[in-house]
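Re: weekly structure request thread

Next one in the queue (207 aa):
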Amino acid sequence: MKQKLDIDTWNRKEHFLFFNQMEEPFFGITTPIDCTKAYQKANELGVSFFTYYLHKTLVAANSIENFRYRIKDNEVFIFDRIDASATILRDDKTFGFSLIEFNEDVHEFATIVKREIERIQITSGLFTRDYPENLIHFSALPWVNFTSFSHARSFTWPDSCPKISFGKMVEENGKKTISISVHVHHGLIDGYHVGEFIALLEKLMNN
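Done, posted below.
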């Protein structure tokens, strides 16, 4: 499910060593993306919009190799598949961290999402199970059309998982947009790769 990357022959060795020594190696961007067709397609397929854009996010993340890199004990590993740990809100307004496994079929994926949401609803606390390393940390703030975003982070905790957040969908002149925030470890991912990810995600959302 994963293989170790040979850092000594990696063309990003110097970049990795430079950013990996920093107390805060993460950087992030926030941008709106067009979701007009995506919202319509989700309704046509009978899946929630949250499920639909989470699915497309994972398709994009799994398609770009740098988004499948993770650091463990100062070694870099390439995972075959990336899943999501999404924050799931409960009725009492607390949330728990989920584990949503990726499936290329959106209907199968919707079943996985539904089952995991139901599981979170009958648990308490933040950490509700064991979590693997092949994750993106995912969250949605459907109440806020944000234009910037930051995350709570412990600089002493080794972490290399991308953090992706979606905001409130807004509509103007018949066009729907939604803000997305992407925070990534600069030792593994550069601005080029983030741009590649956003371009692919927007393409997938508009198919």
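The radius of gyration is 17 Å. The mean pLDDT is 96.
Next request, please.
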